[in-house]
Design a protein that fits this description.
Structural class: alpha/beta
Helix content: 25-40%
CATH class of the largest domain: Alpha Beta
Shape: elongated
Number of helices: 17
Oligomer: single chain
Strand order of the largest sheet: 1-2-3-12-13-14-15-16
Number of domains: 3
CATH superfamily of the largest domain: Phosphoenolpyruvate-binding domains
CATH topology of the largest domain: TIM Barrel
Strand content: 15-25%
């Protein structure tokens, strides 16, 4: 099951893709990571999907990553006594903590943390940004606003407060229950929604206790103000463009996407570009040309993975969407310009302070290019060596060997990494011999081809990448 591309595909499971048969078809079509959206479905629903994924993994002998995506805090207005109301631009509209039936003049907003953070002049966005209010006066129990952009407002529509850091945790009580379920099911990644600050990730890491890696979903402009700190605190990052586009102008999202991808690549953090990538394929069997270009742009930027949401969870063509995304990635990676873009990014792609592992991986990339090596073999326990190798975006695929199955699974998300669960290595000689055998067996090299192996000495010690060896398969 060797992939013929470097960038990975994440697919969300849902009503259209929950059977064991469809999950296997999705995997064969190109899915590397399956996303479980804990905003929907019961614990039993997720358990049956995990069982199906692990059955596919065992059948095909290739580690598969599971991403458990937590819902995060959802801020919503209350209900209206007479059904939906129509707000007109220029009218006054009151938001209040008091639990009274809503009308065209006022509605309950049962979130004291919002009132605590509001100031006159602050904006409020309702129903995914379709309606816009500006605060004229406020206290800890209410806010008097003026409607800037009107429209129809119905029960329990969402509220966004752009530009304001709200004093709330990224983990609700529901998230804590869902997190416990996800960890019991053996999720490899946990997606933390609506991250605003690095402290949100520290809180989650304490609860997870090393049982899964943490992915910070960047959905709030407040997170961008502390981007580097959040990237440092996370194990991976998701560019959640849909929610970002609610709280900022649409034209601000594309350059921000590039900035986030670059920040993640610089720090060696896997980065997913997500939301509305092939949106039209929810109904249509083919994407628009603009959507194909959107996926291609993320690949040219060097993203580790691109993600399907409703396209695979609820769409009419879940397998077709994966097949088309796979073809787009392969076509881009075959373009000579793609390699030129990756090479051009190396000059500014190292952190301010470098170490021995950086030097070894930099030498590895140059050795691969000079020798036209067919494969890079990384021996790793924690995944650190493979992550460092992937940050270099080398010309040869990365064969990642680890004795730890959770590590093998988590690395399925990472650019260029073909992850294998193997027995532990005891010596440099065993590593070189095994690397050559596996490079041939997995179809990366033929007898007589050069490969480059990197590892850390002493074996089994995380973060000690300090060895490079050139071998012949």
């Amino acid at each position: 099951m060797r992939r013929t591309r470097n960038a990975k595909i994440v697919a969300t499971l849902g009503p259209a893709s929950s059977t064991a048969e469809v999950i296997e078809r999705l995997f064969v079509a190109g899915v590397d990571v399956f996303r479980l959206n804990f905003s929907h479905g019961s614990a039993d629903d997720h358990r049956s999907r995990v069982d199906a994924i692990r059955s596919v993994e065992a059948k095909h002998g290739r580690p598969i990553a599971i991403l458990a995506d937590l819902q995060g805090p959802k801020l919503r207005v209350g209900t209206f006594a007479g059904g939906p109301v129509q707000l007109q631009a220029g009218q006054a509209f009151r938001l209040q903590l008091a639990p009274t039936p809503g009308s065209a003049e006022a509605v309950t907003l049962p979130h004291p943390e919002i009132f605590a953070a509001l100031e006159p002049g602050a904006e409020l966005l309702l129903d995914d940004g379709k309606l816009r209010l500006v605060v004229e006066g406020c206290d800890r129990d209410s806010a008097d606003t003026r409607v800037v952009v009107g429209g129809r407002l119905s029960d329990r529509k969402g509220v966004n407060v752009p530009g304001v850091v709200l004093p709330i945790s990224a983990l609700t009580e529901k998230d804590r229950r869902d997190l416990a379920t996800a960890l019991d099911l053996g999720a490899d990644w946990v997606g933390l929604s609506f991250v605003q600050r690095p402290e949100d990730l520290h809180e989650a890491r304490q609860l997870i206790g090393g049982r899964a890696a943490i992915m910070a979903k960047l959905e709030k402009p407040a997170a961008i103000q502390r981007l580097e700190e959040i990237v440092d605190a996370a194990d991976a990052v998701m560019v959640a463009r849909g929610d970002l586009g609610v709280e900022m102008p649409a034209e601000a999202v594309p350059p921000l996407q590039k900035r986030i991808v670059r920040a993640c690549r610089k720090r060696g953090r896997p980065v997913i570009v997500a939301t509305q990538m092939l949106e039209s394929m929810i109904d249509s069997p083919v994407p628009t040309r603009a959507e194909a270009s959107d996926v291609a742009t993320a690949i040219y930027d060097g993203a580790d993975a691109v993600m399907l949401s409703a396209e695979s969870a609820a769409g009419r063509h879940p397998v077709g969407a994966v097949e088309i995304m796979n073809r787009i990635i392969e076509r881009v990676e075959a373009d000579p310009l793609y390699r030129q873009f990756l090479e051009a990014s190396h000059s500014g792609n190292l952190p301010g302070e470098t170490d021995i592992a950086d030097a070894v991986c930099c030498a590895m990339r140059r050795a691969v290019a000079l020798l036209h090596a067919r494969a890079i073999v990384c021996c790793t326990h924690s995944g650190h060596t493979s992550l460092r190798a992937a940050r270099e975006r080398p010309e040869a695929p990365i064969l990642s060997l680890t004795p730890l199955l959770p590590t093998a699974r988590s690395l399925a998300l990472v650019w260029g990494v073909h992850s294998l669960h193997v027995e532990d290595m005891a010596s440099v000689e065993q590593t070189a011999t095994t690397a050559g055998v596996l490079a041939r067996r997995e179809g990366f090299a033929n007898a007589g081809d050069a490969f480059v192996a990197i590892a850390g000495m002493p074996f089994g010690t995380p973060g000690t990448t300090n060895l490079m060896r050139i071998g012949i398969a």
